Amino acid sequence: MARRALITGITGQDGSYLAEHLLEQGYEVWGLVRGQANPRVSRMRRLLSDVQVVRGDLLDQGSLISAVERVQPDEVYNLGAISFVPMSWEQAELTAEVTGMGVLRMLEAIRVCSGASRGSAASGQIRFYQASSSEMFGQVSETPQTERTGFHPRSPYGVAKAYGHFLTQNYRESYGMFAVSGILFNHESPRRGTEFVTRKVSLGVARIKLGLATELRLGNLEARRDWGYAGDYVKAMHLMMRAPRPEDYVIGTGRMKSVRELVEAAFAAAGLDWERYVVTDQALHRPAEVDLLCADPKKARAQLGWEPGVSFDELVAMMVESDLRLLSDGADPDDASWP
Ligand code: NAP
Ligand code: F7E
User: Fold this and answer.
1) Is any ligand 1 atom within 6 A of the Cβ of residue 103?
2) Signal peptide: which range, if any (predicted)?
């Protein structure tokens, strides 16, 4: 019988790639979707016609219990979150509720539906993946960051993710659940939300190249990140869920680039000189910045055999080409079908 997966956050970047990957692996895939007539659900269904949907919201405990009862999943991937860091200062309480407490509600739904009690093996029947984040490292205490590096989150988003991360470990220890956290570093793609810096830059370059804009406004160009390709990272999520033991893993490339280097590469990919177009804007700086993040993915390589396949330059070129195509076709990048 096909294994059955339930994915929260299926309308997001990672949800789409994970669903594709699991369908390729022969899974029956269900997506938890929220809201009435959510246009992102229609977009997701255009791309992923084989996915079945169940209604639910990470803010609503009863809806999660009903979703787990209905789907009877073998694996639950909790990708749903408020994921844009600046929004987490504007709506800190909502971020805590969705990105933090949402993890508790999903774990409780699994616990209740599998009839687990403390120390009972029954809760091991449904496997749980939590989308943890390198933002938990925040102001880093060492570089590169490993599974053992301490946390010093710098935003309400990072704090909420740290809560979800510790809770996942706690349910593993308290109830014997197969519950894992992937500590994923920044991963991007042509399906990335348009507010994140890589996509903002690739879209900005495409607009300038096609004569639709004359400048690109950005915040801190000196921040450094370890950027990889989302299509590679969802494979790591699945490998963690199929591992013999539930453990947490750092997933990244081990290479850091600055926002300035990202901008240079993206403009160069379109044959443009970035210095003629990029304007920095103090209003886009954050109340507390994460200056640098760089993964040490040795454990994932050794235990899961996971390696990133797409390089930084290939990723940037892929995103710029995709946005040039999208805008040339006259599509609205926030509304368009995923490439
Ligand atoms: P994304 O594109 O922003 O997608 C977020 C998803 O969360 C959307 O499907 C959204 O659904 C859903 N969601 C928001 N509020 C919800 C609620 N109340 N109940 C249920 N679902 C809700 O994020 P992503 O880049 O794919 O990232 C996936 C996960 O990995 C997130 O948890 C993120 O924090 C984490 N993460 C991402 C990265 C990265 O670099 N991409 C790195 C580390 C960790 P709607 O369509 O209904 O809004
Ligand atoms: O910012 C700087 C900004 O918003 C990256 C999420 O997926 O990855 C993501 O979080 C850097 C920051 O991603 C602009 O200050 C400069 O230093 O693309 P971002 P993020 O905050 O790193 C982690 C791992 C997650 O878990 C999150 O969910 O770029 N930057 N100028 C800018 N950033 C944005 N967005 N816009 C600018 O204009």
Assistant:
1) no
2) none
